[in-house]
Design brief:
The complex is a heterodimer of chains A (539) and B (98). With 539 residues, chain A is of the alpha+beta class. Chain A is built from 17 helices and 10 strands. The termini of chain B are far apart. Chain B has one domain. Chain B is elongated. In chain B, α2 runs antiparallel to α3 and α2 runs parallel beside α4. Classes of the chains: A alpha+beta (539), B mainly alpha (98).
Chain lengths: 539, 98
């Protein structure tokens, strides 16, 4: 298909391999956590369900709760009120103001309430800097841990975002070079030499999965790089060039000023009728409300919804916060439609896969899983081809450690969330400690075990057992049983429990399945002496 | 890249050329992409919403770098690759300084 000169093809093949193998282990971690994070909302609802599954988050009573709680916080935090659907349908209400944080960067400070949407009882109250409030959000702890690992690998800002941005660039290069090195793309899409040389079969599996996954990999890499670099590199550079370094001024220009400033006091309009109006206008359910200058004459309310069925780019609806009058529909950026706003708006559905609800999310998970498989098998193919060299043999072990140990650590970490939920330890900390402990154990096991095949089987079996145990530990630590969940209409709990049981059973099945011998693979024995493991597997 | 270096002219040592190409494809391409992004904020038309010049360079930054990276890898004449990428960097650098 692509008729590059032979030396150019070789160059592309080298770039493809090195871009994958140098950053592949981290990229694999980002992809794996990204696959799970696609269902972050569902994971939250599964881990921390409310007593009823059909609760409408923004139902009647919202305005009373808003006024009541506004009176309970310092009026400086009326600068902006953010209201959104939290884990299990809880309503989160954050009264805050924008300030320069202790680290000299722009952030928010305020008070957040977590409310029961049926009774409007305050379930929890958190206050402080935004980062502290976020760390205390226990109900969404599991998904937050996964998302943070995916977005910044738990590396402090801005370095974590820069690292994941570079990983995105590497993935993009791997996808582009993976495309152009095909001489016969259509043929490669369907070539699977089953039953021949096992090494050829592994290579074919990598090529077939990678070829089908190429457009998706490119989209994910591109959008992921954008999200990582936009705030860490792009915004500061544009601010330096156009606004003398004032990032707040850039943000104000991008998002537009809703109304002229008027600091006089005024009673606020009800939010619930605005929500009904948005439902009628968009046909979609609101999921986020932002009230600016609550209780002031220049107050506005901006309401966001899930993506309507006929759209790929989200918009929001702007209302007068005093009279409740509908002002206009707002694009993602600026006050009127533009190419830049449309492209930024497209980044979200393309990266998160939520444009067609659960169906598109499931497709994104499947394609993401294929991406993880391609990354993993690509690294194995590369290292095994160089298995005669001690350095690459060590790398093969590292690939096994991360390839099978990381999923195990990700599955075991939520145990800490469930067991320590009632304690003062933030969920991110407890899960982080357990995650690192499992990774350390996996690393020690990888160094100590002679047979990589046994290691693979052990990791897969352990992951399977951990998956099977998650529904049980969820129930033991106070979560609803299946009968209770069924009667309350909490479908997410049942669906995820079944998915975990199926995944756990599959892992155990894979761990017990016979492994097709591949070409003899030497690995370092005691004292660094190369030995032969005839049953090492690429599965 | 090694094979490409072997295939290209043999006036300088392949290893030196490999490092020079790596330098161009990696840090220099990244620097040029950054300069392009910053410079484009000044020379791109802002559009009706007055934000295109701010947003488009940020959105396209990953593509800019990837394009420069692949060009630096594939251009057989290393000198020309340096000239093209250097010119892009210089033009945008001048736009930023003026």
């Amino acid at each position: 298909m692509f008729k590059l000169p032979q030396d150019a093809t070789k160059t592309m093949l080298a770039v493809h391999g090195w871009s994958g193998v140098l950053l592949g282990l981290l990229l694999y971690a980002v992809i794996c956590t990204g696959v799970a994070a696609v269902f972050a909302t569902e994971i939250d609802d599964w881990a921390s369900p409310m007593s009823r599954g059909d609760t409408v988050a923004f139902g009647p009573g919202l305005d009373n709760a808003l006024r009541h709680l506004a009176g309970a916080v310092d009026s400086q935090f009326h600068e902006e009120v953010a209201i959104w659907r939290g884990a299990g349908g809880r309503v989160n209400m954050l009264f805050h103001r924008h300030e320069i944080g202790p680290d000299g960067k722009s952030t928010e400070r305020g008070v957040e309430f977590e409310l029961d949407p049926a009774t409007w009882e305050v379930l929890d109250r958190r206050e402080g800097w935004y980062e502290d409030i976020e760390a205390q959000r226990t109900p969404s702890g599991i998904a937050a841990f996964l998302v943070d690992l995916h977005v910044r690998l738990h590396i402090p800002e801005p370095y974590g975002l820069i690292v994941t941005g570079v990983l995105g660039l590497a993935m993009m290069v791997a996808a582009v070079t993976g495309l152009v090195i095909h001489r016969h793309l259509l043929k490669d899409l369907f070539t699977l030499r089953v039953g021949r040389d096992p090494v050829l079969r592994r290579r074919d599996l990598h090529v077939v999965a990678g070829s089908w996954n190429l457009p998706f990999a490119f989209i994910l890499a591109f959008t992921g790089s954008f999200f990582s670099f936009a705030t860490t590199v792009g915004l500061p550079m544009v601010a330096a060039v156009k606004f003398d370094g004032d990032q707040e001024a850039v943000i104000e220009t991008l998002y537009g000023t809703a109304r002229a400033e008027d600091t006089r006091s005024a009673s606020s309009a009800a939010i619930v009728p605005m929500l009904a109006d948005v439902r009628a206008r968009s046909g979609a359910e609101p999921n986020f409300v932002s009230v600016e200058h609550f209780g002031r004459a220049d107050s506005t309310a901006t309401i966001f919804t899930v993506l309507p069925r006929d759209r790929l780019v989200y918009t929001s609806h702007l209302y007068d916060g005093v009279t409740g009058e509908y002002l206009r529909e707002r694009p993602p950026l600026g006050n009127e439609a533009s190419l830049g706003a449309a492209l930024v708006g497209l980044m979200y559905p393309l990266h998160f896969g939520h444009f067609a609800g659960t169906a598109s999310k499931a497709v994104w998970v499947a394609l993401g899983f294929a991406g993880a498989y391609v990354t993993f098998t690509g690294m194995l193919l590369w290292t095994r081809r160089r298995a005669e060299q001690p350095g690459w043999r060590a790398m093969t072990r590292a690939v096994y450690c991360v390839g099978y140990g990381l999923p195990l650590a990700l599955v075991v970490a939520p145990y800490a969330f469930f067991v320590l939920r009632g304690h003062d330890i933030p969920p991110g900390t407890s899960q982080g400690v357990v995650f690192l402990a499992v990774v350390a154990i996996a690393a020690v096991a990888t160094v100590g075990v002679a047979s990589l095949d046994r290691l693979r089987s052990a990791f897969l079996a352990a992951t399977g057992v951990a998956l099977l145990g998650l529904p049980l530990v969820r129930m033991i630590t106070g979560g609803p049983g299946w009968s209770e969940a069924w009667q309350a209409g909490i479908g997410t709990v049942l669906a995820l429990d079944v998915a975990l049981l199926v995944a756990g059973t599959a892992c155990i099945g894979f761990s017990r399945a016979g492994v097709m011998p591949v070409a003899t693979v030497p690995h370092a024995g005691p004292g660094g002496t190369p030995r032969v493991d005839s049953k090492a597997s690429l599965q | 890249m090694v094979s490409a270096e072997r295939a290209s002219d043999g006036r300088s040592a392949p290893r030196t050329r490999l490092w020079l190409r790596g330098l161009l494809a990696g840090p220099l391409a990244l620097l040029t992409a950054c300069l392009l992004m910053a410079g484009a904020a000044l020379w791109l038309p802002p559009g009706p919403a007055q934000i295109n010049n701010l947003v488009l360079p940020i959105v396209l930054f990953p593509l800019l770098w990837a394009t420069l990276f692949l060009y630096a890898c594939l251009e057989r004449r290393l000198g020309r690759a340096y000239a093209v990428i250097g010119a892009l960097a210089a033009v945008n650098g001048i736009v930023l300084m003026v």
